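> example.struct
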């Protein structure tokens, strides 16, 4: 992800989440030494953004912080490809585990992460508001199915 990508990324973010990160938030991620951000382009349109992922390397852990794909590019495998790149970084940096948080009612994301070897380790009740819990999911580097 570069600065030129940020307006595209923020537009996808705003359309995907009820409490979206701002353009400034994405821009500041680009300056953090422990933050990584990757985008996927639509086929043949390298100036545009179809989806993105942001993650942190924190000690011996990888924290997957943000992932979204524009609605017109969903169900084509992009989120899977982006998440696999995060898992490759986990392996390359010898991280002990990769962790993330997902809304309990976010079935598409839960399916995606489960298929990539993540398991639910904790429920944070009402984390996103009354009746909207968050699940913490983790994947150790030795998990199968990468
Ligand atoms: C979740 C999200 C990132 C998935 O992106 P995507 O590019 O469509 O996902 P992929 O095509 O790589 O799908 C990989 C797997 O995830 C699961 N999946 C994806 N979308 C799904 C859906 N709508 N329903 C059920 N499972 C779904 C499936 O197992 C899918 O594999 P399959 O297509 O072979 O069945 C996308 O729906 C999105 O941006 N949602 C809004 C933002 C969001 O919730 N981000 C995650 C926050 S933790």
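> example.seq
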């Amino acid at each position: 992800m570069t600065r030129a990508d940020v307006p595209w990324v923020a537009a996808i973010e705003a359309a995907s989440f009820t409490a979206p990160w701002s353009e400034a938030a994405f821009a500041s991620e680009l300056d953090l030494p422990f933050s990584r951000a990757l985008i996927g382009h639509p086929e043949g349109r390298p100036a545009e953004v179809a989806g993105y992922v942001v993650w942190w390397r924190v000690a011996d852990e990888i924290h997957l912080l943000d992932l979204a794909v524009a609605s017109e590019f969903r169900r084509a495998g992009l989120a899977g490809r982006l998440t696999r790149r995060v898992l490759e970084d986990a392996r390359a940096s010898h991280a002990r585990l990769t962790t993330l948080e997902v809304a309990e009612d976010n079935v598409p994301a839960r399916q995606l992460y489960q298929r990539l070897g993540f398991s639910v380790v904790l429920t944070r009740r009402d984390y996103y508001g009354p009746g909207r819990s968050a699940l913490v999911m983790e994947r150790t580097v030795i998990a199968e199915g990468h």
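> remarks
The radius of gyration is 15 Å.
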